[in-house]
Specification:
The protein is of the alpha+beta class. The protein has two domains: 246 residues, Zn peptidases (Aminopeptidase), CATH 3.40.630.10; 147 residues, Alpha-Beta Plaits (2-Layer Sandwich). The strands form six sheets. A six-stranded mixed β-sheet has the order 3-4-8-5-9-20, sandwiched between helices. Strands 10, 11, 18 and 19 form a four-stranded mixed β-sheet that branches. It has a four-stranded antiparallel β-sheet with strand order 14-16-12-17. Helix 2 packs across helix 4, helix 4 crosses helix 14 and helix 12 crosses helix 14. It is globular, with a radius of gyration of 23 Å. The two termini are 31 Å apart. Bound molecules: zinc ion. Zinc ion binds next to loops.
Length: 452
């Protein structure tokens, strides 16, 4: 629980001694702020920093509330922490409550405040991870702490897990744990974690988006090969030109609409809240009218394929013999091979496709005891709201846990101001979360974990 580096110390509470916001700070905000001040940037391709420091911090906190956590290192510096809390009814399947400790990179030049300083302004905690997902990490720690310090137990066994490497597919975190230490999840059938359970404003009504599934990911590399030549010559077989044609084709391709159970239900509910006819408008238009959530939801109505990186050439007057592009493809669950076959046709025969990484999609029903319990916990503390299912266009560690037959949901409950575009802040700049939303999340999670 130390302040990790000089930069943080300079902008930490010591420099704002009189600020009423930083005095009497709720424990959840304090922990989230401490975690934000630990730079746990995951650069991808196995390169990350700070995860061990954050894991040790979390480990110390879990010990301080009476648990016996274990630390797991997949590689030096790639550290996860897991603790089990015995439930009152040990015949019930265990629930995994998990978060990740890493964050995506942040360039301080783009941010209003230093992304690793954990500054508090106007009732908001700022910093990389304030949204994704050191907020929820802190909510998990305090909700569990509230239960244990009150001398209570959760209803069922809880497996509290904080993973490394979520932001790069989880090979050094959740996938490692599932492969090498599946025993820590023994008896677990369900999980809750990030990117769901937060509120959005839909036609003046507060709606909580409960995440019931995730799209699949297929990350490919397109490789075009041609003849190296002097840049002044007539060159028909130009790798850069061939690659560019493929990139345009895949980047501009319009994938057809396809609704799943979750999105069918969501579009129907959105239309009801918006008081529009979903058949007349069509799903895209219904979603477009749903406000800040639309950016997140539209991508779940179909496959998406975004070129994200280009690499070719080394000198202005040399035609290179190779050019490559990375494309981030997200499909609906089970459509990966179909989509890959179509991508093959779209990019043409002149370009090779290499699969860099792929992972499955998930979809769970918006029904059943856990969904009822999550919905009930939200409505208990925000009676006027409504709860909707949604599909996540990205992925979470629930993909790894699904390999053990664990059904995962996104439930990091936050009651947010109507004008806050929270979904846009995932991996965006100026991540920030209201302090009172963290208190709400702590309360709702505590309610859920002690009653479900
Ligand atoms: Zn995340």
């Amino acid at each position: 629980m130390t302040i990790p580096n000089e930069k943080s110390a300079a902008s930490g509470p010591a420099s704002h001694p009189a600020s009423p916001e930083t005095q009497n700070l709720d424990e959840t905000a304090r922990i989230a702020r401490d975690l934000i001040r630990m730079d746990t940037t995951n650069w991808g391709e196995g390169r990350a920093e700070g995860e061990t420091e954050a894991a040790e911090y979390v480990n110390a906190h879990l010990e301080s509330i009476g648990l016996k956590p274990s630390i797991y290192e997949s590689q030096p510096g790639r550290t996860s922490v897991v603790a089990r809390i015995p439930g009152r009814d040990r015949s019930k399947p265990a629930l995994v409550v998990h978060g990740h400790l890493d964050v995506v990179p942040a360039d301080p030049a783009d941010w209003t405040f230093d992304p690793f300083a954990g500054e508090i302004h106007d009732g908001l905690l700022w910093g990389r991870g304030a949204v994704d997902m050191k907020n929820m990490d802190a909510m998990i720690l305090t909700a569990v702490g509230d239960i244990l310090r009150a001398g209570e137990s959760p209803e069922r066994d809880l497996v509290i897990a904080f993973f490394a490497d979520e932001e790069d597919g989880g090979l050094f975190g959740s996938h490692f744990m599932v492969d090498e230490h599946p025993d820590v999840f023994e008896g677990a059938t369900e999980a809750i974690s990030e990117v769901g359970g937060y509120s959005v404003d839909i036609a003046g009504r507060r709606a909580y988006l409960l995440q019931t599934g995730e799209k699949s990911l297929v990350w490919i590399r397109l490789v075009a090969r041609g003849r190296a030549a002097h840049g002044s010559r007539m060159v028909a077989d130009n790798a850069v030109t061939k690659l560019a044609e493929a990139v345009v084709a895949i980047g501009r391709h319009e994938w057809p609409l396809r609704l799943t159970d979750t999105t069918t239900q969501l579009v129907g509910e959105l239309a009801r809240l918006l008081d529009v006819d979903p058949v007349a408008l069509g799903p895209d238009e219904v979603v477009l009218r749903s406000g800040t959530a639309s950016g997140f939801i539209r991508a779940t109505l179909r496959t998406t394929s975004n070129p994200t990186l280009l690499k070719a050439g080394y000198k202005h007057n040399v035609v290179p013999e190779r050019a490559e592009a990375l494309v981030d493809i997200r499909t609906l669950a089970g459509e990966e091979d179909d989509v890959l076959a179509q991508v093959r046709e779209i990019v043409g025969d002149d370009v090779d496709i290499e699969i860099v990484h792929r992972d499955i999609g998930l979809e769970a029903p918006f029904a059943g005891p856990l969904v009822d319990a999550m919905t009930g916990a939200l409505l208990q503390h925000d009676a006027d709201a409504t709860v909707l299912p949604y599909l996540l266009s990205g992925g979470t560690d629930n993909k790894a846990l699904s390999r053990l037959g664990i059904t995962g949901y996104g439930f990091a409950p936050l009651k947010l101001p109507a004008d806050m575009d929270f979904p846009a802040m995932f991996h965006g700049v100026d991540e920030r979360v209201p302090l009172d939303s963290l208190v709400f999340g702590r309360t709702v999670l505590r309610h859920l974990l002690s009653t479900y």
